[in-house]
Amino acid sequence: MRSSLESSLRQLKCHFTWNLMKGESSLEDFEDRVLNQCEFQSSDFRATVCNILAYLEHHRGQHEAALEHLRQAEDLIQQQHADHAELRSLVTWGNYAWVYYHMGQLSEAQLYLDKVKRVCEKFSSPYRIESPEMDCEEGWARLKCGGNQNERAKVCFEKALEKQPMNPEFSSGLAIATYRLDSRPPPQDPIDSLRRAIRLNPDNQFVKVLLALKLQKMNEESEAERLVEEALEKVPRETDVLRCAARFYRYKEALDQAIDLLKEASERMPPNAYLYCRIGCCYRAKVLQTLHRGEDRRYGKRARLPELIGQAVDYLKKADEANGNLYQICSFLAGLYSLAGRFEEAEYYFQKEFSKELTPAEKQMLHLRYGSFQLYEMKCEEKAIYHFTEGMKISQGGSKQREKIRTKLEKIAQARLYNNEADSVALHLLAFLQEMKSKEAWQNDADARRRLDAGKRIPSTSLAETENEK
Amino acid sequence: MRSSLESSLRQLKCHFTWNLMKGESSLEDFEDRVLNQCEFQSSDFRATVCNILAYLEHHRGQHEAALEHLRQAEDLIQQQHADHAELRSLVTWGNYAWVYYHMGQLSEAQLYLDKVKRVCEKFSSPYRIESPEMDCEEGWARLKCGGNQNERAKVCFEKALEKQPMNPEFSSGLAIATYRLDSRPPPQDPIDSLRRAIRLNPDNQFVKVLLALKLQKMNEESEAERLVEEALEKVPRETDVLRCAARFYRYKEALDQAIDLLKEASERMPPNAYLYCRIGCCYRAKVLQTLHRGEDRRYGKRARLPELIGQAVDYLKKADEANGNLYQICSFLAGLYSLAGRFEEAEYYFQKEFSKELTPAEKQMLHLRYGSFQLYEMKCEEKAIYHFTEGMKISQGGSKQREKIRTKLEKIAQARLYNNEADSVALHLLAFLQEMKSKEAWQNDADARRRLDAGKRIPSTSLAETENEK
């Protein structure tokens, strides 16, 4: 019985067969994203959220809690989709069957399978089936059409491979689709689909704010602002709308408004590291604003600086305590402490950041910052040179950061040579910078050659251009 | 009968219900891409190609030809998929039903519907159905998981909308998914899936060459070259492999090898504008190579120049005659004619290129080239200034091109001022360039502000950095 049950369970469409955790490094990361990061239209889709929570509880081994979430999902579906409740419940029932199966309650599992079966019989179409072979045929057809069909083709092969992971044909289809999407990523047009969604869902404020964010990027500030104000007026307390609206004001450098909205959202949610981090970053941005203005105009606003630094530090520390993996957070704390003249704390947070797993660009940035800290605050040129040099060696970093580091090293070398024209540290530095420069030039050359594109795009150097470049 | 037939037809999974021409500007463009541009594993998937050809013939109104292609597809499926022939034939039968329906042969259409129905009954799963509601549930679950699930979520909502285009919920799901993919495009990892596909399909040479192209981009030349050589040894006459392998050699600047492979492919295919264009471009690249080498070393290789120019011109003209819309082709021809001293033909092709619909970057490049042609070959500074200025005004063009144009205009101005320090043309030019510069600076500023990202990525200016920048 167990094995026939298992094969039936595998046919269900539900969270347990959707491979939702594919590519996740850990359950914790997955949970963190689902629960804390991804904004969502909270009020509308609570049944969806309940099903995911059930799936998460199952992975934590909390079967009873999982069942409780499924019961909530069922109730919500009855309320939200009274007219399609059976169809909408299929996913939840599928999840029930899987949870009971894992609890060893096979007859309960069978019961839910039967519920699913009855509805499928009622609604199934005699002219279409789901099968990996069909997905594969569809995938090839879409691949052959190319262009904007490659995305759909990829999903067809992914689906087919979920059923038959070792199938050679499906795997080559997926490989070709992925190759094409990597070379020619499909253009997305969110504006059109957002406008359409708003037309069809005039009361959906979340989508409205998403459109506003997109319009803001395209410099259409006034329509964007109108949309955000409208959304906040209609649902002044919906956390996802508040968070997205805050993003709008932060881009706009209206930091006080952004902070107010984020605090409002934070009061209505369980403790959330990402929110704390954003609030902290807004205060940090205010610190930077004040510094720049202060430097420009030399008037009294700097008096507020210690207070602002304190607020930024408070929120960033709260965020760091809630989630130790947030990007750059320790490095920000170090910078703020350094600014407040509290160098011990600054040192502590710099070291904490160094102990994390960082991408090359992040590591480079950190060397730049810590080198500057050593040079200007700790007056230790030796350590500064060491960290600038380490940063310079990272070739996959950002070109702007590298330029900054180069300038700093050049200045150090020049100053030393001014004092002693045979200074060996300075001469070594200059030789090192020269070596880096030729490596880069070589790399740029290779990249340029590679950029000659063989598709429809053809090398863009014009003959007339090349010949006449005198 | 007709309307119940139609509703059954709509349930079929086949080319007629897959919305393959979505977003196409014309049947011609679609045909051109499917038939001429998209490389494919020609030998393996002829049934797929036959089905698409049938679909194209139907759109051209050639029903008999469409049926003929479907018959070919059926035969090929019997040969290629003897063990799954029924399942694999579902798409073809679906297409038959649609073609007969459009021909008014309703009983024939019904016959194919019945064939599909019998197989679906045999293979259908009692525990899963395809319905837009299910797609929608899956879409929300994936959206809630975020990260690499957004792509699949988008496809779920697209599928659901195909069935119910005006559904508000589906449309807001699609809008959110598109918004997210636009802001955070998913990383593709073709290397892994290509290696896996090769492992599972050791005889698939096409996928091998795709992997080689990817490796080449990552500077892993030696493994890449080995793969290409292996593929060419195993299938020295397969056109798609030849075309991709040629691309590999062209990136490598082994132009003679690339040309040989492309000519080989061209002999085995119907006339193809893209192939001619690529051959022409390879000859053009050889022209450029010879020029550079000749300039460097001043020895006799330039003698071959007229011959190479002739070959480049021949192939590019053939390509232009076969398809008048290929990118840059007229501009290349103009450059080659100019180089050969045949200015009338050069002028003709420049004007032809100007008459096309060009993107801002293309238009800018063309102004740069034509301006140079006027300046250096036709000795007409006035026209050159006009075109450089027009090119300079295009703000969405490429920054490298703009720099080139700026330098040219500056040189013209300097030369004029050297002769007459009150030269009004020169003074106007300098004022114009200054104005452009401040516009750019303003734009860069605005862009930088916008790049502050509100997601997990947080503004990357370090406090220590900002404060210590002395």
Automatic annotation (TrEMBL), chains A, B:
One Gene Ontology BP term is:
innate immune response
Task: List the InterPro entries.
Answer: TPR-like_helical_dom_sf, TPR_rpt
Q: Which domain of life is it from?
A: Eukaryota
Sorted alphabetically, which keywords does the UniProt record give?
Antiviral defense, Immunity, Innate immunity, Repeat, TPR repeat
Its recorded name reads Interferon-induced protein with tetratricopeptide repeats 2
**What's in the GO CC field?**
cytosol
Which family does the similarity line name? Belongs to the IFIT family.
Q: Which PANTHER family match?
A: INTERFERON-INDUCED PROTEIN WITH TETRATRICOPEPTIDE REPEATS, INTERFERON-INDUCED PROTEIN WITH TETRATRICOPEPTIDE REPEATS 2
The answer to keyword Transmembrane applying to this record is no
